[in-house]
């Protein structure tokens, strides 16, 4: 019965709810830009006991579909603590991300686990995130996140790959990545995926010249991210056209 209730709620949910769902978003991506940009999916599970670890490859990534910062990375299955991973994922499945953080799009996302291919960039401690802040379908600035699990840094770039003189929450890296040869392809993909929304951040990975879709988020940093200098916060906000009707009733 609970599953039926979840499905009925989910079928009536707005598109935002389906796009923050890390499993359901795959259908949207396939429709808009093609399934070739999706990472390999090994499985989707409603409970941890359904995960057949024995038949998973030597490396993989486990994610909760219904929230942020729900991720377990397995680089070597022979060294992976499965029992501890199950405990962690069971906590995820009991977590309502909407109730914890107030992000409305997550309210009716069914709690599930997905298992995907492990991705890595050479000479990087974690796969590099290319995040496009898109306003009314136009990618404005490109956010680059590196070393997420060790010494997280965050830089902003323009479309010509000039580093921009401001930051967000995390310290900036002194080292610049080279401009990706397929940057314009990523820009166009972000433009296509975001063209229905006032604002959304579209994330990609770029491994050996192959582009992989990461996620779409409507609430970067859970809405608590602090820009420095602070006037950048107002600049980003100014790019959202709210179309508020100010006429008195």
Structure commentary:
The radius of gyration is 19 Å and the shape is globular. The termini are far apart. Helix content is 24%, strand content 24%. It has 249 residues and is of the alpha+beta class. It has helices at residues 2-11, 15-20, 25-32, 82-93, 97-101, 183-194, 231-238, and strands spanning 41-45, 60-64, 71-74, 113-116, 129-135, 138-146, 153-157, 167-168, 199-207, 210-217, 227-228. The relative contact order is 0.15. The protein has a five-stranded antiparallel β-sheet. The chain has two domains: 2-116, no CATH class; 129-238, no CATH class.
N-to-C span = 45 Å
State Rg: 19 Å
* Poorly predicted residue ranges: 1-10
What is the arithmetic mean of pLDDT?
Answer: 89
Shape: globular
In helices, the fraction of residues equals: 10-25%
Query: Topology as H/E string?
Result: HHHEEEHHEEEEEHEEEH
Query: What oligomeric arrangement do these chains adopt?
Result: single chain
Strand content: 15-25%
- Secondary-structure-derived class: alpha+beta
Concise synopsis of the structure shown:
24% of the residues lie in helices and 24% in strands.
Which secondary structure elements does this structure contain, and how are they paired or packed?
Elements: H1 2-11, H2 15-20, H3 25-32, E1 41-45, E2 60-64, E3 71-74, H4 82-93, H5 97-101, E4 113-116, E5 129-135, E6 138-146, E7 153-157, E8 167-168, H6 183-194, E9 199-207, E10 210-217, E11 227-228, H7 231-238
Antiparallel strand pairs: 1-4, 2-3, 2-4, 5-6, 5-9, 6-7, 8-11, 9-10
């Amino acid at each position: 019965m609970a599953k039926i209730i979840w499905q009925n709620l989910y079928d009536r949910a707005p598109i935002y709810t389906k796009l923050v769902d890390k499993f359901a978003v795959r259908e949207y991506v396939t429709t808009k830009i093609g399934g070739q940009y999706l990472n390999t999916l090994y499985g989707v599970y409603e409970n941890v006991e359904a995960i057949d670890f024995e038949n998973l490859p030597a490396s993989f990534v486990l994610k909760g579909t219904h929230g942020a910062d729900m991720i377990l990375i397995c680089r070597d299955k022979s060294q992976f603590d499965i029992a501890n991973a199950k405990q962690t994922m069971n906590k995820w499945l009991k977590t309502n991300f909407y109730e914890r953080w107030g992000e409305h799009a997550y309210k009716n996302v069914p709690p599930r686990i997905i298992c995907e291919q492990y991705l890595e960039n050479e000479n990087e401690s974690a796969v590099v995130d290319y995040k496009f802040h898109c306003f009314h379908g136009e990618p404005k600035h490109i956010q680059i996140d590196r070393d997420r699990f060790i010494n997280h840094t965050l830089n902003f770039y323009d479309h010509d790959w000039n580093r921009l003189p401001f930051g967000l929450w995390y310290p900036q890296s002194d080292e610049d990545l080279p401009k990706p040869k397929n940057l314009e392809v990523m820009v166009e993909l972000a433009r296509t995926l975001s063209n229905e929304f006032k604002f959304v951040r579209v994330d990609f990975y770029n491994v050996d010249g192959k582009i992989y879709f990461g996620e779409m988020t409507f609430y970067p940093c859970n809405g608590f991210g602090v820009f420095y200098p602070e006037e950048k916060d107002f600049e980003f906000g100014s790019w959202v056209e709210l179309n508020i009707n100010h006429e008195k009733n």
